[in-house]
Design brief:
Largest sheet: 4 strands, antiparallel
Structural class: alpha+beta
Number of domains: 1
CATH superfamily: Outer membrane efflux proteins (OEP)
Distance between the termini: 69 Å
Mean pLDDT: 88
Strand content: 15-25%
Number of strands: 6
Number of helices: 9
Length: about 425
């Protein structure tokens, strides 16, 4: 090769390196990396379930204002025009000294402003306000339950995606080891040290490893989609997640039970619904009592202009005498509601206690599995290295290598499954207790 050829080759390589370096950031865009807290923050601002729940709270708050309207007067304005026709059959009428018979038309114009104020209703309005306030607080706890459920869903999907990533990495490592085994088997076969069946077994092993990798890649995509759904933004571009280190959390079972009784949103909402049903029962009882109202009207009316001024003032007492036993049945319904919420509250309390106790058993089991599998995984790695090393020098068997690879794969899968179980169980305990972190 002459000097000109060398110069041209070096120049082309340099230009290729410069162009490749300049264009790579444009075409090889890196995925955004999100942490668990960032995923939760996005979910709490973008998930439609959370947004809908907030509007539910807002709606319940406005019902308090609607109930308070009973404290204020009701003001109405009415304007009217009436055209009336009356037919006169037989007889005569006199008007201004003249007698006539037949039909007549008349007009009437009116305008009236009326004001009605409840003077005393034996606490019906205040009781209605109290009921709506209790229902509003119950709705706030229901919103809290929605938030905790979304947080749990994100955590579960996040740790599942993390587990899927680890399983994919394991599948890639198994494929590398299987390919390494195949290359060694071919080399030994070429020099006559191993039979053809060794190569065939290794080829089958590589094929199985490729299939496992394809499955792992599919599960990884599905896990990412599940996380997007949990966050409530399914159209967001693909992203990567940060690795969450496993750490044992210190959480006392008895303390968690005490906190759950005070902070579990479902239980607190049930308690407030029971209080609202008790208040509803008291409100129904007040329907047997009278209501005192005052009504004043001021307006003008006449058959022609100018109109005549008129006003009225009315104080009224309304006392229900008989309503077809409607109030009686309303009272029975209210009492049934109170009993229903009382028993539902006790049932839910027992379910929460049982669930927390079971979750702590599962948490302890997962923690113990992690400690054991961590040692098992380390041993499986060492066993694989030893088996592969023995095979490389020709003193090991193919069966020994295959067994070592399978053991390594199983240990990895079991370890990350245990880590996933621990984190998800812990997240479920927090949700049941009523805590975010």
């Amino acid at each position: 090769m002459n000097k000109i050829s060398v110069f041209i080759t070096v120049t082309l390589l340099a230009l290729f390196f410069i162009i490749d370096t300049a264009l790579f950031p444009v075409f090889a865009e890196e995925l955004e990396v999100l942490s668990l807290d960032e995923c939760i923050d996005i979910a709490l601002t973008k998930n439609p379930e959370v947004i809908a729940s907030k509007f539910g709270v807002e709606k319940s708050f406005f019902k308090i204002g609607e109930a308070r309207s009973g404290y204020f007067p009701q003001l109405d304005l009415s304007l009217g025009y009436q055209r009336r026709y009356q037919e006169n059959r037989g007889g005569k009428k006199e008007y201004n000294g003249y007698s006539y018979s037949g039909s007549e038309y008349s007009n009437e114009y009116s305008g009236q402003l009326s004001l009605t104020q409840t003077l005393f209703d034996f606490g019906k309005t205040s009781k209605q306000v109290q009921i709506q306030q209790e229902l509003y607080k119950a709705t706030e706890w229901q919103d809290r339950d929605t938030v905790l459920q979304i947080i749990y869903n994100v955590k579960e999907a996040y740790f599942y995606l993390l587990k899927s990533q680890k399983q994919k990495q394991t599948a890639e490592e198994v494929l590398r080891q299987a390919q390494r085994h195949l290359d060694l088997a071919k080399g030994f076969y070429d020099v006559g040290l191993k039979p053809k069946i060794e190569v065939t077994k290794a080829e089958v092993e590589v094929s199985n490893a490729k299939l496992n990798l394809i499955t792992a890649q599919k599960e990884l995509k599905q896990a990412l989609l599940n996380l997007k759904v949990a966050m409530g933004i399914i159209d967001i571009p693909d992203f990567a997640i940060k690795d969450e280190e496993y750490a044992v959390r210190k959480l006392d079972e008895n303390e968690s039970l005490n906190i759950a009784i005070q902070r579990n949103p479902q239980l607190q909402a049930m308690k407030l619904n029971k209080k609202a049903s008790i208040s509803s029962e008291e409100l129904v009882k007040k329907e047997y009592l009278p209501v005192f109202t005052g009504t004043g009207t001021y307006g003008y009316s006449n058959e022609d202009f100018p109109l005549d001024r008129q006003w009225t003032l009315l104080f009224q007492m309304n006392l229900p005498i008989f309503s077809g036993w409607s109030t009686t049945y309303k009272l029975k319904q209210a009492k049934a509601d109170t009993s229903y919420y009382s028993y539902k509250e006790e049932s839910l309390r027992q379910q929460i206690i049982s669930q927390i106790k079971n979750l702590f058993v599962q948490l302890k089991e997962a923690s113990q599995k992690i400690d054991t599998l961590k040692i098992t995984l380390k041993q499986a790695k060492e066993n694989l290295e030893l088996a592969m090393g023995r095979y490389e020098v020709g003193i090991g068997s193919s069966i020994e290598v295959v067994d070592a690879i399978v053991l390594y794969e199983q240990s990895n899968t079991q370890y990350w499954q245990a880590v996933y179980d621990y984190n998800v169980t812990y997240a479920q305990i927090l949700k049941t207790v009523g805590m975010e972190k």
